[in-house]
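Standup, Tuesday
Yesterday: got the pipeline producing structure tokens again.
Today: sanity-check two examples.
Blockers: none.

Example 1:
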Amino acid sequence: MTSSRRQFLRSSTSLIALPFLESLGFRRFASAATVASRPKRLVFLGLGWGLTTETWFPDNQKPGADYPLPLGLEPLARHKADFSVLQGLTHRFVNAGHQGSTFWLTGANQFAVPGKSFHNTISADQVAAAQFGRETRFTSLQLDCGTYAGNSGHGPGLSVAWDASGKPVAGQKNPVEAFHRLFSSEDTPIEKRKTLLRQRHSVLDTVLEDAHDLRRGLGNDDNAKLEEYFEGIRDIEIRLGKDEQWLEIPRPKPSMPAPKSVLAGYKEIELMYDILVAALQTDSTRVIGYRQPVDTLLTSLDIKVFPHDMSHYHSTMGEKLDASQRRDTANSELLAGLIDKLKASKEPDGSSLFDHTTIAFGTNTRTEHNGDNCPTLLAGHGAGLKMGHNIVLPKGTPLCNAWLTLLQGSGVQVERHGDSTGPIKELLA
């Protein structure tokens, strides 16, 4: 049965949130509201092991809009007007080169509490979630690389998110978990959910009768949008099929190689991005964080260099430098694909999902564990920030100034965050 206002399709095993459809009462946005009235969304994509300093950052002698894209950002060329790169940002308390995302969104001093060797504070995504999460099914959604975290250079934590007490917030460790989190009824045992997918029963199959009734009340445009959305869910399920089977295989003994997920690395990140888009399309959440894998990304690119060694490419250059640059290119390709999907997803008022979303892409560290000039790219128009620019800031500008600017621009009521000293005026449109 559908819920009130038909925002969901429900069954005993599935809960399918619907995208915004004009025929279901969302027409008011098309006629009476401006683009700015749509809900704001925030996406935080955290990396480990840094990026290639020489070929990811634009020339800092050419600030502004008229700057040449460096090698590492070339795959984003078609979106150049829709993202900005910030240079000069630093976490003054963070000098842990193996903790690429632990303090990324917090800026905390891990030694701030006497007698304790580790301390953290609330992350920027959770500051936003405390306000935005009141309106959505999930306060926030955390996606994670699970057991890959250590080899991916992330350090302590269970995702990029840390709560108000400085405790780690657990994330969904693979696309299978993330899919069930979004599309399976919470009171359905996980084993039953897995069985349904193994038997090739789509989560949609259990709500198709309800969906058939729903379609009769929709206009042509909404029917096309709904069909496109359903096709997207089925496509995700198909791609998850073999990974679902691997989850049932016990961990092997050390003498036997571990079974490899067919979605590890590049394909896994790509699918996580698709699940991320589905969550935003349906307004299931407005805040998402993803702590991304690095080691499996390298493997999926047929790179033999160990991830930690790659981050020290200056010692030998050669294959380590090549690995670092290929990693950057792959990340930019994946990010460009995510932006493509957000731009293609239309809202009832004719705007795109990208118009109301801001993506933060980056890490605590750059090359060889250096904590200065934290790689930071912001994309999207949800926060009203200046896009299409190479923004070169004074050396030592707190990274938390960027988070404060992003939060305030998105409408979050906050006066400061972490070690922020104020919003970045150069980032304001």
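Example 2:
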Amino acid sequence: MKYIDEYRDAEAAQHYAQAIAKLTTRPWTIMEVCGGQTHAIVKFGIDELLPPQITLLHGPGCPVCVTPLELIDKAVQLAARPNLIFTSFGDMLRVPGTQGDLLSAKANGGDVRMVYSPLDAVKLAEQNPTKQVVFFAVGFETTAPANAMAVHQAYLRGLDNFSLLVSHVLVPPALEALLSSPKNRVQAFLAAGHVCVIMGYTEYEPLAQKYHIPIVVTGFEPLDILQGVYMTVKQLEEGRAEVENQYSRAVRRDGNLPAQDVIREVFEIVPRKWRGIANIPRSGLGLRAKYASFDAEKRFNLTEYSVEESSQCISGLVLQGINKPHECPAFGTLCTPENPLGATMVSSEGACAAYYRYRRVTNKATAGIKEAQS
């Protein structure tokens, strides 16, 4: 219980909230990057502890949410193939594409399996030499080392029946895309601590200087987030724009160098489409030429195409911090975790899922409809 007492102490939280209120002299808008931070903020009511001048926006830090529709469709297509085992972490199974989700593919006879590690998929490939095994490699820099190691192990073992469907995205280019947008409202960032465990935070220093914006690497417990907000507001009030590290118990400036070496060995930086946002240059990871035979899109000749998002879903605006989930007309009515219009409602790190689970607020238009019906 020591961990909970230390990082979820109510008196300490009130102390930080009072310190932030005393420090704040004008309105500030801060974006937490990670969906895990968003869920902690909404679950524990951290935003409601803050003074009214502080606005927290929810950012694009949910890799499941930003995986493009086209790739979900390709996953569903692969899962329907005979003699193919499609593997994924559990949080991707219910993400909707235009052709259904992976659970519906499984219900229709596809061999879809949830795994806890990409190395589990490598083991499946060894155990099933007559079948192709595909792993859905989704994530930020956090999951890239394990996925890279899986490919490297398959390469060393000569497995020609293992491949990745890759949807790796990188955080710093996405932050720059938000900052350069004419719709940008962000004045400071709480950076995702787990990403920085791998990559460190030197990549954020040029962004802080170029856009004169504070960036504070922050953990995920309530007191982590409140301390991160305090450090951010202090910089804003003092006119500073630096990268600071709240999550020092886990993050070092240079990150995990061996993990970075594994990533660089297997992956290279490529453009990547972010669902609901845009194509962002140099914002993704793709397999290097040496490992191209492990690319599922190439192995199975999956063609490039483009599809449109649901006109009823504003998840792209939510991911950019332009709208809050409850401002969507479909929130909680047409769009629920059981019948999601977008990934932000079904992902365990999605902002819409957090609001639905912990707040159950509705927008004014929906409230008006319900009142009229009653």
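Quick observation on example 2: The chain has a mean pLDDT of 92. Residues 222-238 form the longest helix (17 residues).
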